[in-house]
Structures are given as structure tokens and as C-alpha cells.
Give the backbone structure.
Amino acid sequence: MTSQSLKQEERFIRRKRVALSFIAMSLSYFLGIFITGLVEYSFNPSGPDDFLITMYVYAAPIFTFLIWLVLTLPFAWRMSINHPLLQKKRVFLSISLHSFILFMVIIGWAFFLEDNGHFILVPAACSVFTGLIFRYGLYSIELDAWFKNGASMFWTAISIPGLLFLLHFQVFPKISPDKAYHFLPYPMREEVLAELLMDMDRRKPYSEFLSAHPAIEKRIVSTTDNTHYYNYKNQTIGFQVENDRIVWMERTTN
């Protein structure tokens, strides 16, 4: 290979490492949402912790991007293409350890360990996942061919998390709202519960609905005449229960 070809190949590898680091950390963020929701649900079946899941959904992307921009991108670009830590046998372990330190210390999961020791699963799983994605992509012949045939690294790196955001926050709640509830932040969970209540089968016992969706019970205000109210945003759902059946329901705007 000529000197010019070597420089082009080296630049290609550096650009691919930058794109892969962003993709891997973005995918790990979504994995963290699911692990957080699953672990919280196992400890709190009535619904995930409002602060924890909401903080993760809204704050973690900001911290993740800053970490990538300041502490990951420079290394991905500047490290030698033959650096020992990025060799095929070592890259998975080195990237996983690097990610674990960042997730624990910078993002702040270390501060939850005193009261929520089980949440060490989140940074650990995300770090391993990041290492796997980076290791596979860095040495993938198919990915090299795809990029060299004209695919944009920039738009690939941007579109993957964008598509996942769309699927998670728009499609998932519509397809399976009762399951999506545990992986959504506070404002979106309130809307999901409201739609579940409005769409419930009124031929079935009301108690059966509460058993299937225990999170909604603690948010319903009841009166002495069997009338119940569910308030969210600027709307109120009022309904009346007789003999364990909903006989009247109305949604109004406050």
C-alpha cells in the first residue's frame, strides 16, 4: 500500500472507532433503561421508582453524551490504530473496564449503591454490552464493507439512537402500554395509565383491573359514593364503581 493509502486507511479506522463508541454507548443507555425498569419492578411491583427511572431517562443521555464527547471521543480518535489495548484479544476487556468506570463514577450510579446495591447490575451490564458492541464492530468485515461502499458513519451513528428513541417512547407504549409503563419516565407513565383506564373492558371486574395494574390504585382518589378520580396533567378521569363494575366514566379537561 502507498503512503497515501495507509493514511486513508488509518483515518477510516479512527472514524469508525469514533462512530462505534457513540453507537455502543447509545445502545447501552437503552439497555440501562430496561435493566432499571426490570430490577425496580422486582422490588416494587406497583411501579418503578419515580425519581430513579425519570432521572435515568432524562439525565443519563446528557451525561452519556458529555462522557463520550470529553472522555471517549478523544481516545477513540487519537489512540494508535495498533495500540495494545485495542487489539482483538484485549479490546473487549479494555473497553468494558473503561465504560464501567465512567458509568459508575461519572454518571453517578456509585452514589446509589448505599441504598440500592442491586443497581450495580446496571453499570456492569451496560459496560459489558458496550465492550461487546465495540469489539464486534471494530473487527467486523461486513461493517467495513458497508461503510466503504458509501454508508455514512455520521448518519449511522446518529440514526441508531434516534430510531431507538422513536421505538421506545412512541411505538412501545402504543403496542404494549401495560409493559411499557415500567420503562417510561413519570409524565409518560401517567398518560399510559390514563389510556389503560379508559380502554379497560368494563364487562370485567374492576378489582381484576387493579390487580393487573397495581400502580394505578395509589393514584386514584376515591369518595364515599363509589366515585373515583384519576388526575394527570390538566385532565381528570372520573368513574363510578358498583358491584365491582365500572358503570360510568368520563374524561374532562381542567
